[in-house]
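INFO worker-7 received task bundle
INFO bundle size: 2
INFO processing item 0
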Amino acid sequence: MPYVPPHLRAQPGHEGRDTQAPSKSLADLASGPLKHTHKKPPPNRPPPGPGEYRRNRHSDSSGGKQRASAPKAFGTLSGRRCLAPSEDIEGGTRVDAEGMVYDLDGTAVYFCDRFRRYRFDSGAGGLSLLRALCSRLRTMLELNGAMFDPDEEAAKKQKEHGYELYEEKPTLRSNSKRVGADGESHTVGTWSNEEYGLVGFQWMYLRFKSYQRFSETWALLERCALAGLFNDFLSAAAASAKTGGDRLTLRFVSLGGGPGFELLAVEFFMRYWAEVGENGTDEEKAAWLCASSFEGDRAADAPYALELVSLDLQPSWATYVKSLGAQYDFAQWDVHGSGAAPILGERGVDPNVTTVCMLSNILCYCSDEQTAELFSGLLSVEGGVSAIVVNERGAEQPIVPRLQKRGVHVRKLLDQASAGRDDRQMIFLPATSAPAGEGSVSLEAPIFPNQPYEERKSMNKTTDGFENLRLKSEDDGWQVVGSK
């Protein structure tokens, strides 16, 4: 039976339609303006206040779901035009086929959006990391290419369908529901589980989601490390190795981890932090990164074992995850009902294993009381999880007060003073543990600056006698406003 998107299933007469074939060709979609055109708001529409949200571009007037995004007051480098598919950065050399990463005189320019509108810059160390990411990504894309229909025309339709799903996000706009492992009905997020499993969709997702997930996770790990999250484990692992004791294990479990880009950042980062990141100078850190190819499995050289596990509802991600190396594993898992057992693995709670969970853009699926109970249970003594680290899109996460009500310590890692509440990167810690410090963590020399974007926060501080200064992007129709 052909795949029918959730937003069409309730419509009578969908049976028998060629739903695999999209309404537009790949060439039409690639050349058309699609959704990167931005309309100015109506003249009578007031500007948003600090911390307020605009209607997201993936919502509609019919009541379709809105995807929470961070306020424009944080940043986004708006006002830049998109690059055409054949266009390149002046003086830059493409590192990947899509032009998402450039080598610009030994430094990196990269993009996290498909239309290459929002430019990010990094130094030589960041370029080395992005080259290593692109190398692993090429292997994933080779695996993906082998999954397409051998018929050229059929494969083209699979790509066209994947392109349209990735761009138009029909499930997000339809308020679709699914039944979880707990038997209850739950809201579907940006794409449905079936859509995530389509080879054409994966072809899009792998090529364009990887850079954002990798670079934001690296920045999250830098903040976690500076907050002291890994200190106790690394000290214990080094002491045990020195005295010939049991080899300790650090187990990172990415909940809703998909193909594993966040886990790849963990692998690279833990090598870097253990060898030079914690105590090295900026010059030593950059030199170490530039000298590291990150090829091959270096797990045997470390004083501890590293396990990297992706848990996800879509089982076909397993092929990609396991291609990343021997340290990686995958299990199918549903946040709504699968429970904690896959998170801890066959060993369960083990004194020689430190387990850290990672949430990356999944709280749009699960911020209810049931999920808060699951997470607080994981962080209990019986739960066996030392910390949950969080990277999300929206500035205000409803699960935060639910966890705090249960005694979970929440440390917000991003600046909270300049533009209001910002929950995009956090650490959740057990109620029985001492909080890992307080307040945000400032990165003096980040490998990936402005991840996640914050470049406008400084403009919201009192400047030259103006208070409540807000900068609105030109494409939204707003200018700099303030009051004496």
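INFO item 0 finished
INFO processing item 1
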Amino acid sequence: MALRNDLKKAATEDRNRTTSDGAGAYLVIPRAAVEALIFYLRRQDQFVERALRGADGLEMVATLLFDGQVSAGCPPSSAIHDVHICFGLDKGGLISSCKAVLTCANQLHPSSRGNSILYGLFPCEKDNRAAFACIAEVYVPDLDDLRTGGVDVSGSRRAVTLIKIGEYAFMTSWVGHEGASILMPCLWCTALRRRTQQNGLMVDKWGNMQNGSRARGVPRTRDHFDRMAVAYTDGNNRKRGSPMPLEENLSIESRPLLIIDPTHVSPMPLHLTLGITGSFLRLGIEAVYFNEGPERASAYAMNLSMTLRFGVGVTPKPYFGRALEGRQCQTIARRLSSVVELLASYVPAEEAAAYSAACHTWAEHLPVLTRTGDSSTEDVTAFQAGTARFVDGLCRAFPWFTVTHKLHVLCCHASKFLRRFGSLGRYSEQGLEVWDEEGGFGELLEAEFARLLALLQDQRLTWPEKSWTSSTTTVLPPPPPMLRRG
């Protein structure tokens, strides 16, 4: 009985009070929950001050008190005492739902799910505009209230520096951007996907993602988001009497639901880790396909799955379409020599050498994506140079290689965020993800190869012409039944 009474009493506290509008449940006073978390961190001596850095990499000292601000979208001055609060959504679960989460970066382990706040829960079967608009009606006023009013920290009011975290589709939807498949797929700049016969002048002006670290995209601005919010008050671009041209809307096709400075959008370090590791492994399959043909590529894919499972010791997880989890990507990076040795028996020496050099660079700089501690100015400079060398080297070595939006973010934008905030790992979406039980690599890579082959047969990928010749490379025996089942 005493326990029940304590639970009822706790539920009535401001930090725990929840309500429902019929479509979802959420905290009534999120500020109280954030202040309670900060109070707990300070009481446990776990609260850590976070300072922004200038262009020279030096920390800027905060000396001013926060007295409120009018504009929620305008970041607080670096001279004002603040706390760093991250906001993100995670979609998934046995019953499809969208969980809103708040985390505080002013602690040693901010990415831990146990150190986060479950802000709200909404049923969500589709990632469409209407679903996000309903969610925004609940969360945006509270987030704006946090940014304009701040939070109490030990009796003094501090500004809230809001950082948006999450996977790419979530972050682009909040600003009216339609994601990685549109003409200007980057959330941080205007670089176009690639140069075509029709868009040469636009590429010269707005940048080309396929140029790697030299994409030359024009940085997006909060003012442009504000203008798009006004322009799309009555609907999206398609519903306007005269649709806005690309050079004016810069691929912002709908009204931004949350105005935030692009420099305060985390470069999704977890999804960079997952996505680039998978793409890097797939690149090896593509290299064998180009040099030796589909049968040899299929054999390589199977042998690669065996190497990863039995040599490296990792298996994919079914929580997200049989993908890898972050720690497994770190393990693969540390043991990429096994993958390099396997690939070297299938492709020419120069391609194997280029792949090996890229492996070394990726293994060297991957830990920066998960590091929650501060990076020095030298570390930031090395990371910027290394990621550029990684992407540019792959572009030179493999003629068919495509710079995806994640590779573009890695070599063009991640280092800028790192230089500004001092860390990537503490602004990670790690705490939003749910890891589940094991799966098998054979099924994953067989599916990747089948998808690649289908794309080639449909002529949606263009490969350089090359005649395939027989090879004397030894093919490993077929995998055991347990691996083929996945």
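INFO item 1 finished
INFO post-check item 1: The chain has a mean pLDDT of 84.
INFO post-check item 1: Residues 269-292 form the longest helix (24 residues).
INFO worker-7 idle
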